[in-house]
Structure formats: C-alpha cells, structure tokens
C-alpha cells in the first residue's frame, strides 16, 4: 500500500460530483481529506491523501481527470514567500508538523518543507509580515518558490 498527497482544483461544473465516493467505492482507495474549499461561484480546491495500491491510485487519478479536475502536487496549497519572511520564528510554535523550521541555527534562517505541511493554516494568521498564504485563505496569492 502507498499514499499519495494531491491537490485537486476543479471547475464550477465539477463541484457537485461525488468524487470521493467513487475513489472509495470504485477504486478501493482510502481517502483522507486535509482541507477543502468548495464555492459554487469559484474554482474548488481539495487536498487529499489517497492510499491504496499504486495501480488503483493511478486509475483513480485518471478518473478524476475525466471530470475536468486538475490534479496537482500538494506543494501548491500553502505558499511560503522567503522574500517576505524576516525569519522571526513567530510561526514555529504554531506549526504542528514542523513544516516551518529553522534551517540554519547559527543564522536562525527559516525554511519550509511542503511535504510535512497538513494545511492547518495556523501560520497564516500569526505571520506579521504576510510571508505565508494559501489557496484556501481569502487573500489568494499565486507565487511559485
């Protein structure tokens, strides 16, 4: 058994589709929803961990594509802007998975490990410099690191 974390981005016409139901029922997958933003007037987003046999995961993702849903790597859900970060460390105690961490102790340089991020969004509200945003927050920022 393997697990793959994905970000689903789906158009307005796909938000009423029973995607999770079909992944579980038709492809025998275990699905853990980390975060979802569903708005009938906007693009929908959902971050999932999909667990099962690799073949079933691949077939399940192919099914999702047939609905017009884009499947992306989870790294695009939370955005950490190193240029805005002052490395104050305010976010460290609020990150339950240590996705935000001190990379270099001597310089107190911060870093972000997207593979550890569970999209709890604790860091967004407490960052005094707006260095962290998310596709799930009201103020969407599209930035690639």
Structural description of this entry:
Strand 2 and strand 3 (44-52) form a beta hairpin. The chain has a four-stranded antiparallel sheet, covered by helices on one side. Strands 5-8 form a two-stranded antiparallel sheet. The chain has a two-stranded antiparallel ribbon with strand order 6-7. The protein is elongated. Helices cover 17% and strands 31% of the residues. The chain contains three helices and eight strands, in the order E-H-E-E-H-E-E-E-E-H-E. The chain is α+β, with helices and mostly antiparallel strands.
Rg calculated over all Cα atoms: 17 Å
Low-confidence stretches: 139-145
Count of alpha/pi helices: 3
Beta strand count: 8
Through-space gap between termini:
31 Å
Structural class: alpha+beta
Main pleated sheet = 4 strands, antiparallel
Shape designation: elongated
Name the helicity range.
10-25%
Strand content: 25-35%
Order of helices and strands: EHEEHEEEEHE
What does the average pLDDT come to? 85
Sequence of strands across the biggest β-sheet: 2-3-1-4
Which helices and strands, and how do they pair?
Elements: E1 2-10, H1 19-25, E2 30-37, E3 44-52, H2 54-66, E4 70-73, E5 78-80, E6 100-104, E7 109-112, H3 122-126, E8 132-134
Antiparallel strand pairs: 1-3, 1-4, 2-3, 5-8, 6-7
């Amino acid at each position: 058994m393997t697990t793959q974390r994905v970000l689903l981005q789906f158009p307005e016409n796909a938000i009423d589709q029973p995607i999770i139901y079909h992944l579980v029922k038709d492809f025998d997958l275990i699905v853990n929803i980390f975060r979802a933003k569903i708005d009938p007037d906007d693009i929908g987003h959902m971050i999932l961990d999909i667990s099962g046999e690799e073949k079933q995961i691949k077939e399940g993702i192919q099914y999702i594509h047939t609905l017009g849903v884009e499947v992306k790597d989870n790294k695009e859900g939370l955005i950490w802007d190193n240029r805005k970060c002052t490395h104050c460390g305010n976010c460290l105690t609020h990150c339950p998975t240590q996705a935000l961490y001190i990379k270099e102790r001597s310089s107190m340089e911060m870093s972000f490990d997207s593979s550890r991020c569970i999209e709890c969004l604790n860091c967004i509200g407490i960052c005094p410099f707006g260095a962290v945003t998310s596709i799930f927050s009201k103020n969407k920022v599209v930035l690639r690191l």
